[in-house]
Amino acid sequence: QVQLVESGGGLVQPGGSLRLSCAASGSIFSIYVMGWYRQAPGKQRELVASIALSGSTNYTDSVKGRFTISRDNAKNTVYLQMNSLKPEDTADYYCNVQGRWLEGYLEVWGQGTLVTVSS
Questions:
Q1: pLDDT for 2
Q2: pLDDT the model gives residue 1
Q3: Distance CA 90, CA 87 (A)
Q4: Closest Cα partner for 83 from 16, 4, 29?
Q5: Which strands, in side-by-side order, build the sheet including 18-25?
Q6: 10-residue block means of pLDDT along the chain (119 residues)?
Q7: Confidence at residue 119, expressed as pLDDT on a 0 to 100 scale
């Protein structure tokens, strides 16, 4: 069964840190791109960061220097280390994985985890 399980969201004060995790499961042949998106209330979902199988990364400008995306290919897991968090980082964060499973090429979304940055 194809599944993504996210964890790590929560409430943090401005300037604090959180680490999100997302583990993919199922009959996985290869995972090409893993990424994190976020959606704040009343706004469109946006790409926060992505990482390719090669290890190359991409970040939206607003998080550069504060967030770090990484992946553990042996565990089919992607992480998002978020430092120096700001209130404007408050959003639902969604994991996105593109790869090849037994079922074929798939793009799969996680269930979302809420990050709230507030004092």
A1: 86
A2: 81
A3: 6
A4: 16
A5: 3-7, 18-25, 77-82, 67-72
A6: 92 98 93 97 96 97 98 96 98 97 93 97
A7: 95
